[in-house]
Write a structure and sequence with these properties.
Helix content: 55-70%
Shape: globular
Number of helices: 3
Number of domains: 1
Radius of gyration: 10 Å
Distance between the termini: 30 Å
Order of helices and strands: HHH
Number of strands: 0
Length: 55
């Protein structure tokens, strides 16, 4: 899955409910850090994303 498709898939996954970076990483077979970078990119594109820090 290329990055553009993954960004779109992340948006769709988040629209359906709460997800963690870890679970998204497993779902898309990338690292947690890659998901965090993707979420940062989406935020810079003005996609509204609400994040809650875990323990």
């Amino acid at each position: 899955m290329n990055r553009t498709n993954r960004l779109a898939a992340i948006v769709m996954a988040l629209q359906h409910g709460h997800e963690t970076a870890h679970s998204l990483g497993e779902k898309f077979e990338v690292s947690r850090r890659t998901i965090l970078r993707d979420i940062q990119s989406l935020s810079e594109m003005n996609v509204p994303i609400i994040a809650i820090s875990g323990p």
